[in-house]
Amino acid sequence: MSDSPARAFLRLLREDAEVARAQDPAADSLVSVMLTYPGVHAVWHYRIAHVMWQSPGLRMPARLLSLASRLFTGVEIHPAARIGRRLFIDHGMGVVIGSTAEVGDDCLLFHGVTLGGRTMNPGKRHPTLGDRVMVGSGAKVLGPLWIGDDAKIGANAVVTKDVPRGAVAVGVPARNKVPAPPVPDTSSNGESRSVPRVIEDPSQLIEYVI
């Protein structure tokens, strides 16, 4: 028998907390995450406000909830934005997600990130992030752009053009860089194997500009 909508929604909220615990080495416990992580609280508030936004009569309360969340968490997410599962906003302070922004599953945003627009015209004005996108601290992604699956945005980058799948965007304005191929390695038994080049923290990607 399938879960009720309320039970499925509560499971979604728990999933948001579980992904924060899994990704943050500083997380002590699931209870600690649920009680003290403003990024998780902001996503929870958004999910409730987004459900309310679907009913025209509840749009003002939805906006008031998003305002209260901004005051409480430092994160501003418009209730009309579309956000997938398991979004983790690390630290959270200063994150802004606009009304026509779309965020895929398993994305990671650091503090100071803006998913904003470049015009006040109606219609699609904000970026679309694919799945597993990482956006470094202070990065600005502006306009109706497409950020491909598994892409990474460097710290303080200003992105005004599409970023292909798996690419790394760094600089002001941001330039797309294709990750280096796997580095050959030789194991102890003399056999050659490939070791992928891993960028562990997108907040450190600013070094690639220099």
UniProtKB/TrEMBL annotation:
Keywords of this entry: Acyltransferase, Amino-acid biosynthesis, Cysteine biosynthesis, Repeat, Transferase
UniProt region (Disordered), positions on chain: 175-197
InterPro entries, alphabetized: Hexapep, Hexapep_transf_CS, LbH_SAT, Ser_AcTrfase_N_sf, Ser_O-AcTrfase, Serine_acetyltransferase, Trimer_LpxA-like_sf
Enzyme class (EC, first level): transferase
Organism: Isoptericola sediminis
EC number annotated for this UniProt entry: 2.3.1.30
Protein name: Serine acetyltransferase
Family: Belongs to the transferase hexapeptide repeat family.
Pathway per the UniProt entry: Amino-acid biosynthesis; L-cysteine biosynthesis; L-cysteine from L-serine: step 1/2
Catalytic activity, reaction form: L-serine + acetyl-CoA = O-acetyl-L-serine + CoA
NCBIfam families on file: cysE, EPS_EpsC
Pfam annotation, one family: Hexapep
Biological processes, Gene Ontology terms: cysteine biosynthetic process from serine
GO terms for MF: serine O-acetyltransferase activity
A Gene Ontology cellular-component term: cytoplasm
